[in-house]
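Structural prep section.
Before we set up the soaks we want a predicted structure of the protein with zinc ion in place, mainly to decide which crystallisation condition to try first. Input record follows.
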Amino acid sequence: MPQKEAELVCAASVRGQGNMSLFYGDTRDSLKNREAFLKELGIDYRDLACARQVHQASARYIQDKDKGRGALSEKDAFCDTDALVTDKKNLALAIFTADCLSVFLYDPKRPAVGLAHAGWRGTKDNIAAKAIKLMQRQFNTPAQDLHVAFGPAIRSCCYQVSGDFAGIFPDGIINRDNHYYLDLAGINRKQVLAAGVKEENLFDSRDCTFCQNSNFFSYRKEGADCGRMMSVIMLK
Ligand SMILES: [Zn+2]
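Run finished without errors. Recording the tokens verbatim:
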């Protein structure tokens, strides 16, 4: 749990905290689950700005007028973006995942934050680097100042894919026992380093949603109806 006095709030929910999606899985308790999870972090669940990711590799600058978008209904979430960035305080950004990688971005100097949802499609389109570029444009964030963290995601131990993926990600496929496995976090790691992030500023939770399925929701393990976890980031 982050310190109350910290300038940054940055967290990902786990399975035990319930489904956080208003769209996927059993949504009956989702608002209650959000409220309980966010209250501990000092965030009013009604104030969230949420991306309803549609695997579009665009990043969006979120401002105070956007507060509450997607907080109480899926309908007004930002449906055209996979990454959100802001320099506004007390404006919590949220994305929802069950296997996809959440990429947290923090520039302590400006300060500013970002949050990207990196599935394989977004990763193919370099979504994390696009969020970093938007922070550079919008806030003059130098990449070398950025702190980056990867949340829970399906890892190369479990993410079996077809051979076609070797053509899409020539450097991101692991061949094991004649099966192909995608290293989503590894590819994102290379992308953020290529964007200028320093290796020592990169933290990876290394949690695998598939093999640690008792702790996390996994789309691949459970199917499309599974719940979603929330990743959230906010400047205080
Ligand atoms: Zn695994």
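Observations: The pocket of zinc ion is lined by residues 155, 157-158, 208, 210-211 (CB under 6 Å).
Flagged for discussion at group meeting.
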